[in-house]
Design a protein that fits this description.
mainly alpha, Transcription Regulator spoIIAA, 2 domains, six-stranded mixed β-sheet, two-stranded antiparallel ribbon, 60% helix, 5% strand, disordered N terminus
């Protein structure tokens, strides 16, 4: 759900439930343990120094936790934006160089500016076009993509290929080169985490698996036994600096930032919407745009790259029991401590452990139960969710998001283009009931009350005309047709002209067209179009009862 309100801070923290705080803190510690190696991997994807991945979950996390509205959304380095950044500036400077880092920082600043503009232009409404159906499909697709993308590291192989499916195929065709100790470690981590959850969901099993793997790696020197590890990680907090680049580079960086902006806007909204819906909460996308914009500014001035609302990190904290931004603040504190004092032990973390944990996170995002529920009640929307998931997996996150928005609009258009219109009839019990159009039911003798089920506009105006004329196309037509307009929130010019046309056609058959239950706005609209003058002021009634009484009074007496 969404809500609109004036800008406020701490929306992701309030109301604060004291009983939930300990669980949020534990979830934040767990999130830190999983997110630290993950964002380091994303830094590698982006072509940035590994340490900048950690910087992406320090100040940006604090900023969004204070300024955003979502209680669940976790911001930080993200695979989609990291890949877009690398593709956009990869040819402009050497990966990992100071010039490259500066360009990445400027791209983050420009992206933050775009997000501010989107806030003041109130573009948060774009999220309104993401239905729950496509949200389930989107997150399922992201989960599959994330899980498949971890398979090469779980087998100790290089990631070869442009996408997770191609990478998976290369693993299948190169099993002879796999590191079987790495495979065994990956399987062990999966067994510990999945098996542990069967024993207790209150214990942070992924955290225990990561810590245990670091201890075992240091004790038995995994790196010298065919199991790759992260290696040396520099420590220290990021410094606040304003990145500078040549003016000639600003234009290309702005172009890259447009793509980053679209992904951040849509993916963050999709993720926050999904978790707000899961817990029946409200979220304000416009407020989140401010939080995301400031988070990217914070990223730009702390030497890191663009941050995004991350489905995987959000799932991590949700699985660990986090329910507010307290969890993310806790993660930020842990990362600060790690940067100051604990980067040394991270060098022993096996890459396969990270891959196995992220693999399980991806599987958690795959909402098979949600897909089954949709299939059981709305088969057409199930296929929409399936197509959305497939687009994310086979084409990518950005095309998947754009397709999700498009399909959500199509669902709406299909329902508004062909609304289910009905008649009102008086039953044997004397009460008013809904009847289907083909019954040609009359409310009282000589009066048909026709309820149109949606706003009247150019796409469905022809349906309106056909249905009304069909109701009077009989040997014994009614004397009155009342348009019951309670569901009509808008009438465009084409629809107003259609009403005029229908009025004239009914008049030729001596049938009077009247209207009831018009909202003030719609009545003002058709007044401007001149439709009210055509119908006559005595043809507009407040309620169906008023129409019925008028028709009874106008009936000729025997």
């Amino acid at each position: 759900m969404t809500k609109s309100r004036s800008f406020a801070v701490l929306e992701g923290l309030r109301p604060l439930d004291a009983s939930q705080v300990p669980r949020d803190v534990v979830a934040g510690i767990t999130l830190a343990a999983l997110a630290i190696p993950e964002v380091m991997g994303y830094a590698t994807i982006a072509g940035m120094p590994v340490i900048t991945g950690l910087y992406s979950i320090v100040l940006p996390v604090f900023v969004f936790a204070l300024l955003g509205s979502s209680r669940h959304l976790v911001v930080g380095a993200d695979s989609a934006t990291a890949a877009i950044l690398a593709a956009g500036i990869g040819g402009m400077a050497t990966s990992g160089s100071s010039d490259y880092v500066a360009m990445a920082g400027v791209a983050a600043l420009i992206t933050g500016l775009f997000l501010f503009v989107a806030r003041f232009a109130r573009l948060g409404f774009i999220a309104d076009f993401l239905s729950r159906t496509v949200l389930i499909g989107f997150l399922t697709g992201v989960g599959i993509q994330v899980a498949l993308g971890q398979v090469p590291d779980m087998f100790g192989l290089e990631k070869v290929g442009s996408g997770p499916l191609e990478q998976l195929w290369n693993v299948a065709t190169d099993l002879a080169s796999a590191s079987w100790p790495t495979v065994a470690l990956s399987v062990a981590i999966i067994v510990v985490v999945k098996g542990g959850r069967l024993l207790s969901t209150k214990i942070p099993w992924p955290l225990l698996a990561v810590v245990g793997a670091i201890v075992a790696s240091a004790a038995w020197d995994f790196a010298d036994n065919g199991i790759s590890t992260l290696g040396t990680v520099p420590g220290g907090l990021p410094s606040l600096t304003l990145p500078t680049v040549a003016w000639s580079d600003v234009g290309p960086l702005a172009g890259v930032s447009v793509s980053l902006f679209v992904v951040i806007l849509a993916q963050s909204a999709a993720t926050s919407r999904a978790y707000a819906a899961k817990y029946d909460e409200t979220v304000d996308e416009d407020t989140d745009l401010v939080g995301l914009g400031m988070a990217n500014v914070a990223a730009g001035v702390t030497g890191t790259f663009v941050v995004n609302g991350s489905p995987t990190k959000t799932q991590m904290v949700d699985t660990a029991g986090g329910r507010t931004q307290v969890a993310n603040l806790s993660m930020g504190v842990v990362v600060v401590v790690v940067l100051l004092f604990l980067t040394g032990p991270l060098q022993y973390l096996p890459n396969a452990v990270l891959a196995a944990v992220v693999f399980l996170i991806g599987l958690d995002l795959v909402d098979l139960a949600g897909m089954r529920r949709i299939l059981a009640v709305r088969r057409d929307e199930f296929w929409v969710a399936t197509v959305t998931a497939a687009a994310v997996v086979f084409v990518g996150v950005l095309p998947g998001i754009l397709l999700a928005i498009f399909l959500s609009i199509v669902i709406h258009m299909r329902l508004s283009y062909k609304p289910h219109d009905t008649l009102l009839e008086t039953g044997e019990d004397g009460h008013v009931h809904v009847a289907e159009l083909d019954s040609r039911a009359e409310l009282i003798p000589g009066l048909i009350v026709y309820r149109f089920g949606h706003s009247l506009y150019y796409a469905n105006a022809n349906q309106f005309a056909e249905e009304v004329t069909a109701l009077v196309d009989t040997d014994d037509p009614p004397q009155w047709v009342c348009l019951e307009a309670s569901a009509i929130a808008d009438v465009d010019y084409t629809a107003a002209e259609t009403i005029r046309q229908v009025h004239d056609q009914l008049a030729e058959r001596d049938v009077r067209l009247v209207v009831c239950n018009l909202t003030p706005d719609v009545q003002a609209e058709i007044g401007r179009f001149g439709t009210l003058d055509l119908l006559g002021t005595d043809a507009v009634f407040d309620t169906v009862n008023d129409v019925e009484e008028h028709v009874r009074r106008a009936a000729p007496t025997a």
